[in-house]
Write a structure and sequence with these properties.
This protein has 225 residues and is an alpha+beta fold. The protein contains 5 helices and 7 strands, in the order ααββαααβββββ. The strands form 2 sheets. The protein has a 5-stranded mixed beta barrel with strand order 3-4-5-7-6. The protein has a two-stranded antiparallel ribbon with strand order 1-2.
């Protein structure tokens, strides 16, 4: 056990020991706080001329679709894309750490100059193996990480919705409509014609007013106003 601990804090495994512990801890904390897998997506490292390092965490999506940031740039350089940044960093770090540890235990290294020279090719191999394994795992889950496009209002034209208010007028009304993923949305509905729509009735969406953000509805058997 002591030998394993010694190797874990020896070069080059110590690099991945630190990163693995840090990012795993970050993952646990952000998951507990509900930040999710994309919480590292917009971390930027700005290096000033006085060698101070400032970490700017931006929780909003950047105009480039969240593809910016130091960590995402590193993953793209390594070719590990198609997954959340936090997951990609964790996978790469853990696989690289395991590779370095196995190599060091088999070859045997120490903190001498010779050990450091031996550690350089081990580091290169660990990076290569970590990248390859992370890419392999990431490809298995590509579909799971592809965000579904948000539905547009006009996608609901022709759909049935369930009235949730006691009446529907030219100025008032709400309904529940199902999206393509099986979820439900509460939307604004309007009807310019006299009607007796009430809570629980199913009505047909036949048009949308983009300015008001409201749907025009008609009785179920009708296909138009």
């Amino acid at each position: 056990m002591s030998e394993v601990l010694n190797e874990a804090v020896s070069f080059p495994a110590v690099i991945f020991t630190v990163t693995s512990v840090f990012f795993l801890g970050f993952w646990v904390v952000t998951t507990a706080l509900g930040a999710g897998l994309d919480s590292l997506g917009d971390i930027d490292f700005d290096v000033d001329t006085d060698l101070d390092v400032d970490v700017d965490v931006d929780t909003e999506v950047e105009s480039d679709g969240g593809r910016g940031g130091f960590l995402r740039g590193v993953l793209e350089f390594l070719g590990i894309t198609g997954m959340p940044v936090l997951l990609g960093v964790n996978l790469f770090s853990i696989f690289a750490w395991a590779t370095a540890m196995i190599a060091q235990l088999l070859i045997g290294t120490d903190n001498s100059l010779t050990g450091a020279l031996i550690g350089i090719p081990i580091l290169a191999v660990a990076v290569f193996v970590g990248r390859a394994l992370a890419m392999r795992v990431g490809k298995q889950f590509d579909r799971a990480f592809v965000p579904s496009p948000a539905p547009r209002r006009r996608d609901f034209i022709g759909s049935l919705c369930t009235v949730t208010t006691q009446k529907v007028t030219p100025d008032f009304g709400q309904a529940e409509v199902r999206d393509g993923e099986g979820g439900s949305l509460i939307v604004q509905i309007r009807s310019d014609k006299p009607n007796d729509f009430t809570t629980g009735d199913q009505v047909l969406i036949f048009d949308v007013d983009d300015e008001l953000g409201a749907f025009q509805v008609a009785p179920r058997p009708e296909l138009g106003p």
